[in-house]
Design goal:
By secondary structure, the protein is mostly helical. The protein has helices at about 1-60, 70-80, 85-90. The termini are far apart.
Length: about 100
C-alpha cells in the first residue's frame, strides 16, 4: 500500500510540474509576442516619421533629421517576433549618401 501511494504521489508531482512548466512557457511566449508587437509599432511610427521628413525635404527643401534610435533600441524585441526575411527588409534599409 505504501509503494502504491508513493508512486501515485510521484506521478502527480511530475504531472503537476510539467503542467506548470507548460503554463509558464505559454505566458512567457505571449509576453514576448506582445512586447515585440509594441516594438514593431514604435519602429513603424519612426519609419513613417522619417518618410514624412523625406517628403518634406523633397517638396519644400526643408531638411530635417532622420531618426533611427527607436529601431536600434527595439531591434532585439523585433527579432523575437518577425521572420528573418521581414526583419532583413527593415534592417537593411540603405542609408542615404549624405550620412
Amino acid at each position: 500500500m505504501d509503494l502504491e501511494r508513493i508512486l501515485l504521489a510521484t506521478t502527480g508531482a511530475i504531472v503537476g510540474v510539467f503542467g506548470w512548466l507548460l503554463v509558464g512557457l505559454y505566458i512567457n511566449r505571449r509576453e514576448y509576442a506582445r512586447r515585440a508587437r509594441n516594438a514593431g509599432r514604435a519602429v513603424y511610427f519612426e519609419l513613417t516619421a522619417n518618410q514624412l521628413s523625406v517628403f518634406t525635404a523633397l517638396t519644400y527643401g526643408a531638411f530635417g533629421q532622420m531618426s533611427r534610435a527607436t529601431f536600434d533600441r527595439l531591434l532585439p524585441e523585433l527579432a523575437t517576433w518577425l521572420p528573418a526575411a521581414e526583419l532583413q527588409s527593415v534592417a537593411l534599409v540603405p542609408r542615404p549618401r549624405w550620412l
